[in-house]
## 1
Amino acid sequence: MAMPILEARSLRKSFGSGSTQVKVLCGASLSVAPGEFVVIMGASGSGKSTMLHLLGALDTPDSGSVSYRGESVFDGSRSKQGAYRNREVGFVFQFYHLLPELNVLENVMLPALVSNSFWAWRKTRVSARQNALEMLDRVGLIDRVKHRPNELSGGEQQRVAISRALVHKPALLLADEPTGNLDATTGSGILNLLAEFSEAGQTMILVTHDASVASRADRTLTLVEGVIREAGAPTAVEHKSEPQKPEVVL
Ligand SMILES: Nc1ncnc2c1ncn2[C@@H]1O[C@H](COP(=O)(O)OP(=O)(O)O)[C@@H](O)[C@H]1O
Ligand SMILES: [Mg+2]
C-alpha cells in the first residue's frame, strides 16, 4: 500500500477526572490511504466525534499519535497544527455551522477570509470569490448565492457547508454525521454528492451511527469500547469508475 495519508496510533482520550472520568478512546488506531472513503460507525456516545476532532487536530489526545503524510500532527508547533487544521483538512458537521448573518457566497468564502491577512485577502479576493462560485455551482446552488442560511432547506444548508469545507481543496475531508439532521431522501442526496467528490479522488472520513451510510464507503470501521475495528471486507474499490488512486492501479 502507498504511504497512508493519515495514520492514528493508540489514541487515548478521557473527559473529566476522578469518579466522573469518562474514558472515551482507549487505544484507537486507523490508517487511511490517499483517495479512500472511510466510514466509522458507532453508537451514539461511542466517541465518534471525539475521534474525528483528534484526527482533524480540533482537540489533542491524552496519548497516542496522529500522522499526516508521515509527519506527526501533535509534535509540531501550534502554528503547524493550525496550518494542518486550516489548510489540509475540511470539516462538515451535522448542524452545518453556517454563519446566519452571511449569505451563501460569503459563508463559502469565509475560509479564504480568515486564513489570510487583510492585505493578502484583498489580493486574493477575486480568486476566492471565483473558487466559491465554482464550488457552489458544483453542489447545485449557483442560484442561491445571495440567500441567507435560514432561507435554505437543511439539505441546501449542508451543501453550502460541504462547499465551504472543500473550497480550499483540502487533502482530507472529515464529516461528522453529515446526514444526521436530514430526512432519508435529502440525506441520500448529500451522500451522492460526497460520493461524487470521493470518485473525483477526495480522501474522506465520515462518522455516523447510520448503517445505511456505510454502504457508500470503500471501507467501514466500527468504534466500539474505545477502539476501532474492521467491520467487514473492503468492497467498494471496484465500483470506482476510474482508478484515480495510485494504490488501485494494477
Ligand atoms: N468536552 C467534553 N467534556 C466531557 N465529556 C465529553 C466531551 N466530549 C464528549 N464527551 C463524552 O464523551 C463520550 C463520547 O462523546 P462523542 O465523541 O460526542 O460521541 P459520539 O459522537 O459517538 O456520539 C460521551 O459520553 C460524551 O458525553
Ligand atoms: Mg457525535
## 2
Amino acid sequence: MMSDYDVIIVGGGISGLLSALTLSRHGKSVLVLEKERIVGGNCNSYMVDGFQVDTGPHAITHLKEGPLRRLMDEYFTYMPVFVDYGHYYVRTEHGLTKIPSNLKEFATFDVLPRKDRFLLSQTLTKALTLKAFGMIEDKSVYDFLPKGLSKDALDFVDAIAPFLSGKSMKETSVNRVLYGSSFARDSVSENIFEEERQDDTSYASLITDRISKYQLMTILSSFSRLATNKVSYAQAYPRGGLKTLLNAVLFSMPGNVMIKTNESVKKILTSEEKASGVATETDSYFAENIIYSGFVKSLPSLISLPSDYTEKLSRIDQTLSLTIWLGLSEKMKEFDYTGSEVWFKGGAYWAMPISNYDPCIAPKGKQLVGFTFVINEDRNIEDEKKKAFDLIIRAVPGIENRIEMTHLQVTIPEKAAVTINGFFAGPRSPIPNLYLVGTDTDNRSMGVTRAGYSVLELLRAMKEDGKL
Ligand SMILES: Cc1cc2nc3c(=O)[nH]c(=O)nc-3n(C[C@H](O)[C@H](O)[C@H](O)COP(=O)(O)OP(=O)(O)OC[C@H]3O[C@@H](n4cnc5c(N)ncnc54)[C@H](O)[C@@H]3O)c2cc1C
C-alpha cells in the first residue's frame, strides 16, 4: 500500500509537536492531526480581557540538563528565553515561608511544629538510605509516614503530594516523592545509561551489570544534595508565556511537516496486522508509522488491542484540576515574589503570580495570578469552584476587592498520575508500527519535562526498531 507520509502523529500537544520536530529533522515526512482548532494542547497561552493566561500555571523543570534541554540543544533553531523560576513558598495566616529543600532548612521550617519536623526528617533520612540501597518498598507516602504527626503536618504532606504525583498521599508512592523532590534525582541514572549505552546493550542487562555503579552514584548524589542542597538543574518560566515554548517548537519545524487542525482521529487503520493509517470523520491518511499522543487510556476506542493490554490501560489513573486565573486591578504586596506558593489549611492550592516574570502578561500596573486546585470529578463542579474561591479569599484576605478578571480552566494536567499500581505505557504499543508518546508513556518527572522524556524514549525505540 502506498503511504502518503513516513509518519502520522495523532495530537498536536507539546509531545506530538516535539515528536514531529525531531522526526522531521531526521528526514521523515510528517503529518500532525490535531482535533482542536489550535495546536498546543495543555501548553499554550491566550488572551482574556487584556490578560494573557496560560493553560495552568507552569514551572518548567530540569532545564540545565534534562530532556527538554537536550531536545532544545539538538533540534531547536529558535530558543525561548527562560526567566529563573524563583522559590517555592508555603502561605499561612502569617505570610510566606520558603519550602525547605534540604534537611538544614527543614530544621527551621516553623510552619510545622518542632516535633513533626524531627519525625519527618528522621523519616526522610531513612527513606533516602533505603532508596540508595535499592531497598525501598513501593509503599504509599501515608503508610511510610511515622506515627504521631500533627494534623497540620499530615495536611501539609497531603497538599504537596498531588503536585508530585497527581494524587493524594495515600495513593502517592514514596519513590515518587524522592524522585519528584530535589533530594534525589533521576537524571543521575540516565547519565550513566547514556554513557554506557553506546553499544546497544539492553536496558535489563545494563541494569544488572551496572547496578553497583548506579547505586554508588545515587548514594553520593542523594547525600551530598541533602548536605549542600546543590540542585544542579534549573527551573524557569518562558518569557512571553507558555506559548513562547510552543512557538519555539513550531518555528523550528522544517518544511517536511504538515499540520492539520480540526481533524479528530476516529480510527487507527491496520493492514496485515500493522498500523498503516488513520481515519478522521471525512478523510483517511496513510503512513509507514503512526504515533499516538492522545490519552493512551482512550486507545481501545480507536483500535482493537489484546485484552491483557486493555486491562493494563484501565489502571491509568488521572487527576482533574481547576485553575482560577485572577486579573488584579493593582499589584498586591502578598504576591511580590517570583515562584509559586502552596496553601494547605482546610484545602490546598498551588498559585503563581505569572505577570511577575513578564509585565507584558498583564495590562500596565496590574497583576495576573493563577491558582490551581485538585478537584474531585465525582462531586458537583460548581460546588468545587465555590469552595476554591472561598479558600483563595481565606488565604489572601482583601483579594476579592481587586479582582477585575476571572477565568476558569478545568483540565487534566498529566495523562497518567504516578500512583502505586498505576500503569505507564512506554513508547511501543502491541501493534507493530504504532508508537505512543506523551505524559502517560513515561513516569519520570512531570509535565513538559515528562513529555520531553517520552519523546526521547520514542526516538530510542524507533531507532532500535530500525525506523530511524
Ligand atoms: C493546571 C496545569 C498545571 C500544569 N503545571 C505544569 C508545570 O508546572 N510544569 C510542567 O512542566 N507541566 C505542567 N503541566 C502539564 C503540561 O502542560 C502537560 O504535561 C503537557 O502540556 C502535556 O503535553 P502532551 O502533548 O503530552 O499532552 P496534551 O497537551 O494533552 O496534548 C495532546 C493533544 O492531542 C490532541 N488529541 C487527542 N486525541 C486526539 C485525536 N483522537 N485526534 C486528534 N487530536 C487528538 C489533543 O487535543 C491535544 O492537543 C500543567 C498542566 C495543567 C493543566
## 3
Amino acid sequence: MRAGDLGILIDTGPDVRSQILREGIDRVDAVCYTHYHFDHLVGIDDLRPFFFHHRAPMPCFANEETAAVMRSNYDYIFGADPYPGAARVRLEEVTDPFPIESRYDDGAPSVQAEPIRLLHGDMPVYGYRIGRLAYLTDVSEIPPESRSQLDNLDVLILDALRPKPHPTHYSFEEAVQVARDIGARKTYFIHMTHNVRHAEQEQRLPDDIHLGYDGLTVEVEG
Ligand SMILES: [Zn+2]
C-alpha cells in the first residue's frame, strides 16, 4: 500500500513479483509480515531489485514466531554472514505500535502502524492497522483484547475463505458477522478459495461488504 509517500508491503507471497510489476511499485520502505506460512513469505527474494540502486536496509516487521521462522529458513538473508546479493532486509520484532520511516532520505513523513494480535487456528498471527485501514488476513478469531484496535475504521480488509466453515480461516458467514461487529465504513473480503464464484457471492453480501480482486484500489483519507 501507499501511505502518504511511503510504500509498504503486507507480506511477500509467491505472486509478489508480478504484483509489483503490475502495479508499477517503485519504492518499498518496509514490509509488515502477518505470519510465516510460505504463501505469505516465499516472495522475499523478489525484494532484491529494490536494493540494486538504493542500498538502505529495509525493515521487516513481524511477531516473535514469524521472526524465528524467518531467521531459521532464510539463514542466507538473516544469518550472521548473509549472502552478498541477498535482499538487505532487517528483521524487527514488534509488539506495540511502531513508526515506518522513509528509507530514501527524501524527508517523506513517517507513518504509524499498529500490530493487531489475531489467531489463525491456534497460531498467533498479526493483522495491521495503518490510519483508518486494517488488514486482517489468515484469521479465525479476533481475541477480545484486540477488538478495540478495530474501532473507527473506514476500510476493513478481512479473511473470508469460503461458504463452509474452516478451522483456520473465517467462513463467509463468520466474516459477515465480524464485519458487522467492527462496523467499518466498507469491508473487503480477501483470501477467497478458488471455487468461490465471484459475481454470485458478491450479490449475496450486504451493500457495505465486497469481495476484493486483483488490482482493486481503495483510497482512505488520512
Ligand atoms: Zn496462513
